[in-house]
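Structure representation.

___
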Amino acid sequence: MEARFAVLGQIARTTAAVLDRIELRLDASVERMEQRLDRAEAASRADFHRIEQRLDQTEAGTRAAFQRIETRLGAIEANARADYRWLLGIMLGGFAGLLGVMAHGFHWL
């Protein structure tokens, strides 16, 4: 019986030592994972900051592009109005001239 207790005691000591080693390994693994997570979080923050900067630059570029487009559209609209007025003047002048020729031909004047 004494031999069995001695063997059980030896098994208990060995098991305790193995459990201590496992616990140390787990603690080391947890620490490494926390360090990796911290590095990943820092990298994510840096990436997020760079993305925000690029979005701000893109937004500023888009605003500038829209302003240029609005300026060009304003110039096109002004040219279209000038062309319309010119054509309207030509048409009215031609119509008045035609009426004048008709009045002269039919001796209305």
The radius of gyration is 46 Å.
